[in-house]
Amino acid sequence: MLRDNPDAVDVRIYGTNVQRDAPALAACDVGEPEPRYVGDADYAAFALDFCRRHAIDVLIPPRRLAALAGRTGEFADIGTRVMCSPPAAVDVLTSKGRTYEAARAAGVPVPPWRVVSDADQFLTAVEELAADTAGERMCVKPAGEFSAFGFRILDDRPLRLKDLLAAPLPLASVASVAGAMRRAADEGESVPEFLVMPYLEGPEISVDCLSAPGGAMIAGIARSKQGRYRHLLDDPALVAIARRLVGHFRLAYLSNVQLRHRAGRPVLLEANPRPSAGIFQTAFSGLNLPWAAVRLLLTGDPGTLPVPRLGGRIAVTESVLEVAPGRLANHPEPALLPEPAFLPEPAAVLPEPATVLPEQPVRPDPAHLTSAAATAAG
User: Fold this and answer.
1) Which tens digit of pLDDT belongs to each residue from 176-228?
2) What are the tens digits of pLDDT across the range 242-295?
3) How many CA atoms lie within 13 A of 307 on its CB side?
4) Nearest-CA neighbor of 273 among 146, 117, 143, 87?
5) Cα three-residue angle 236-241-247, rounded to 5 degrees
6) Most buried of 59, 72, 100, 257 (most Cβ within 10 A)?
7) CA distances, 331 to each of 154, 155, 179, 242 (Å)
């Protein structure tokens, strides 16, 4: 989407990843490894050096926002503009518990939740929420920025034959989760905060947002996810929730709001002050949100945006990419720090291209979308 921009600007894309052979780097013109398990100061120093060496004009960070959001002035001094929301928003939104507190105060509907950090708190939270939610199934996930790592549906029911014959789910019993927390504490491991809440079934709704500095929303595309299918939703109520959240947190440029339905109404699942990994799917609406964000960052003007084509259905399909061995052999590995016991291994995932189903008119070339999405994920 960056390369196929409506202004026909020649774009050269640089990317980094903690994995030397990450498929995302194959979509970049230049790829280098980045340090793994380093603190914010060291990561920011790496990013500044990278941008200085390569004369980067625009930095679009898909992670480590806490390390970069407060240093936009330092990047500006070397000629790099950082696409990032204010540090205060990044600080809140990297904690799911504080996100829910702030969103509820802003009038955004949220599910009931508890933040826990040990086994006793976890057991109490499950008991209280189960009593207050009329028997809804519960789930648990890390309260920090861990993507889908650590998510479990809590299920104490005996395994049934139909469970064995169905697609596997990330299930765990209440006792096993509590036991894992107790063992970690007994062995001196650091236990992060976890969020306990009702498990919200049904399609996840993702709203990709473009907004000006200060939080004024310019465009929002809502898409539902169900299996390999995505629906580009024409539902102003969903975009209105995202608009309220974006305005409250004063989010800038690209952000993402995730919703699910509970008792028939949409509630907040999480909000991210960064572009989503699936933003490439919004190209089928006719909008190029990433390029509009780049224009907005550099000139203060997102350009003329067409009315989005909504109501369509697309399918996400697999693609195969050959990754050349030793592609980054000329670049030394950055220094590493000891791995925290609770930090999950980062995953390099090649975003799958979206394909318009036969009954829909053909949209932008999926091959181009794959390249741009892979870069964004890198």
Assistant:
1) 999 999 999 999 999 999 999 999 988 999 999 999 999 999 999 999 988 88
2) 999 999 999 999 999 999 999 899 999 999 999 999 999 999 999 999 999 999
3) 2
4) 87
5) 115
6) 257
7) 44, 47, 43, 41
